[in-house]
UniProtKB/TrEMBL annotation:
Domain Cytidyltransferase-like: from-to ranges: 6-134
Subcellular location: Cytoplasm
Cofactor: Mg(2+)
Source organism phylogeny: Bacteria, Bacillati, Bacillota, Bacilli, Bacillales
The organism of origin for this protein: Pontibacillus salicampi
Catalytic activity: (R)-4'-phosphopantetheine + ATP + H(+) = 3'-dephospho-CoA + diphosphate
Gene from which this protein is expressed: coaD
Chain residues that bind ATP: 10-11, 18, 89-91, 99, 124-130
Residues given in the record as substrate binding sites: 10, 42, 74, 88
InterPro entries for this protein: Cyt_trans-like, PPAT, Rossmann-like_a/b/a_fold
Protein's UniProt name: Phosphopantetheine adenylyltransferase
Entry keyword Nucleotidyltransferase: yes
Length: 160
């Protein structure tokens, strides 16, 4: 049986922490859909289309990764795609409580789709898209936090 996993997130922008989780998921599961979800509680810097383009660029060497987007419920999207698994990254204990709530609700919506938590590499445990945007906004270096393509896109957004 083929395993289709979905790695959801806002990816605004994609960081090396995200890439760590995506790459590891691609090694474990037959196919991974990296799905850009528009979190309405956040004010995104990049459009969904820009985030998709950045993700396509940084995952182009993986033949088992597809980039997509959705604006609906994750579990409805997973059902539509025929996914068996949701992959979620955890940076620290503080992420666990939030993720546990989301996973519990997702399980209530569809108990046939499992959620796998992957701890990010320790070197990225502090990293978030919000922090990256804040550093880039004030002209700090983000070269060791995001892929080169993303760094360039951030510089362009912040007119450098």
């Amino acid at each position: 049986m083929s395993t289709l996993a979905i790695c959801p997130g806002s990816f605004d922008p994609v960081t090396y922490g995200h890439m760590d989780i995506i790459e590891r998921a691609a090694k474990i599961f037959d196919h991974v859909i990296v799905a850009v979800f528009n979190n309405r509680s956040k004010d995104p810097l990049f459009t969904v289309e820009e985030r998709i383009a950045l993700l396509e660029e940084v995952t182009r060497d993986f033949d088992n990764i597809t980039i997509d987007s959705s604006s609906g419920l994750l579990m409805e999207y997973a059902e539509e795609k025929g996914a068996n698994v949701i992959v979620r990254g955890l940076r620290a204990v503080s992420d666990f409580e939030y993720e546990m709530q989301i996973t519990s609700m997702n399980r209530k919506l569809n108990e046939d789709i499992e959620t796998f938590f992957v701890m990010t590499n320790n070197q990225y445990s502090f990293l978030s898209s919000s922090i990256v945007k804040e550093v880039a906004k004030y002209r700090g270096t983000v070269a060791d936090l995001v892929p080169k393509t993303v760094e360039e896109a951030l510089m362009k957004k912040y007119q450098r």
